[in-house]
Amino acid sequence: MTGLFSELFLSALLFGAVTAAVPLLLAGLGEQMSEKAGVLNIGIEGMMITGAYVGFVGAFYSESLWFGFLTGALGGMAVAVVMVLLCVRLGLNQIVIGIGLTLGLEGLTALLHHFQFSRTYPRLPAADITAIPLLSGIPIVGPAFFRHHLLVYLAVLLVFVMAYVYRRTQLGLNLQAAGDKPAALDVAGVDVLRTRTVAVLTTGALAGIGGAYLANVGAGIFVPFITNGAGFLGIVLAMLARGRPSWVLYGALLFGMCLSLTTAMQVAGINIPTDVIQMIPYLAVLAMLVIFGRRSSLPAALGIPYERGAR
Question: Which pTM value belongs to this model?
Fold first, then answer.
């Protein structure tokens, strides 16, 4: 029985880790792009909760998860537009605006859900699973890593795409310059504000999709405050990744494993208070900040509004 429980525990832990890691991965990749361009997007939690609500509503009424992902992306981008107008264009404090957006949207989505569904919490059907031939048949590891919704594989593919963009394309160079030396980028004839705008809008889309995945696939239901700090974990991932998308992936899997411990232990019959388990992801964050925080490298102009011609 011990071996059976051990296999169940590992399988549930790894599967849950991947499921929980996808929203963190998408949020972390989006935040990483925003920070590269010099915008500290504290409002990413608000973008995620908006994407979760709008994405759930879109999937619920259309009966299509992909339409839900699309509406989630649009919801996240709508919040990003506000961030662009206030922080990138008007140069207001990025931290204050980000916190305000997050707090406001958490309350707004809870209120809209109450008016729309009253005290009921409708559920979506189980998401379709795409199994990778041969690999999905490997014991324990196969079902955990190679039997997921198609969006999971696309999110992992995005890691390699963004790594290529940062290293091999002009857009990647422009993003880096917008965060490190925006004045030099301006002198080179590239619009700094436009570059930052593209970065923040992309962040909003990715965060919105991450929120929609969390509600539609991870939980199958929307409840107020469902993101539960996932956006802030994405900010930590982006800061510790030192500009490398692959490090965001590894960190997301680590945090995802911490988040999945509760379910895995319930499946294995291990009785530990839930409150103790829920502390683990945040303890892991503190540990990583202590270990790697001093060696993290952030853009020189991060959080500093850019005004053309200013000295």
Answer: 0.92
